[in-house]
Every structure is written in structure tokens, then in C-alpha cells.
Amino acid sequence: MWLTAQPSGMSSQPDRADLPQLLRELTTSLSALQRDLKAEQRGRGRSLDRLLQFTTDVTIPAAILVLETNIRALRLLQRTLRMVGDSETESQSTSASEDVAAVGRSVVDRLDDALDDVQAAVDSSDLDDRTRENLSEVRTLSQQLDQRLEALSANDDSRDVNVDVEAELQSIKDRHSDEGDGADSEAS
Known about the structure:
Layout: H1 18-42, H2 49-84, H3 90-123, H4 129-159, H5 165-187
Helix pairs in contact: 1-2, 1-4, 2-3, 3-4
């Protein structure tokens, strides 16, 4: 999936509607990678029995477990994004968006770690081009998701405005008392 430019006149905030589609594509790519890795496990010869035994028994199941966990976490993130929506007030939306972005970043970080493990297993064995392409696509989608979460976080940060309520009230009082003093002195 490629990110598309927004039509002119729209806000610079990333469209949250694109995130579920990006998450679906990432989930699909992760599933394809999982299928390819399982197929690769079955098609090996006897020359690398020890490496394959370790990879089959430990590395790949661990990577698959991490990937499945990340898929569940991404689905949870997707549901959370839907819930955040436009129905909340600005301050609630900002804190919820920050929470979602933080969760999303941790999911992306865990996914990157799992992909590094899978990449190490892939590098140590001969895999077909399709598996390498799926791994590359998963990495690309993961990076896009990370960029979108960063953009959401940056937009939320730009909306934060600290207002010193006490100072504002004092300035209003001072302004009104100055206007009142001027009116009283002119009337006398």
C-alpha cells in the first residue's frame, strides 16, 4: 500500500481512516510471510538437519508467536483507533491519541524485533524470492505504520496549548479595572 496525497483543502492531520486499511494490509502480509515460512520448513533437505531442527523447533515458532501476538495487538490498536473517533472532546481525543500512538509504537517496535529474528533465520537459509518479497513487504508496511503513528503523535503535540488561566484572568481584571478607572476620572 502506498500513502496517497490528501486533496487540497483538507487538514494536514493524517486521515485516521487510512490506518485500519494499513493495519489490514500489514496483517495480510504477516499471514503470507507465516505461510511461506511454514512452507519453507517442509521443503528442506537433510544437509542442514541440525540448523533446521533448531529453526523448526525454536526460532520460527517463536517468531510466528511474536508475529501472531503483534497481529492481535494491531487489531486491538485498530479497534482502539475506531473508538477514539471524533465523538470525544479535544482534550480527551488528544490524550487518547497519544495513548494509541504509544501503544502503536510499542507494537511496531516489537514487530521490528520479530522481523529481525525472522530476517536472521532467512539469511541463514536459502529461501525463495516470494518469501523474501513478503518479508520486505511486511517491513515496508511496518515502517509506514510507524511513520503514520509518528505523524499522529506530532499533530497531537502541535495542538497542545498551555494556557495559564490565572494569568489570563488577572489580565482581564486589570484591563477592566483600567477601563473603569479611566471612565471614572473622565466623569469627574
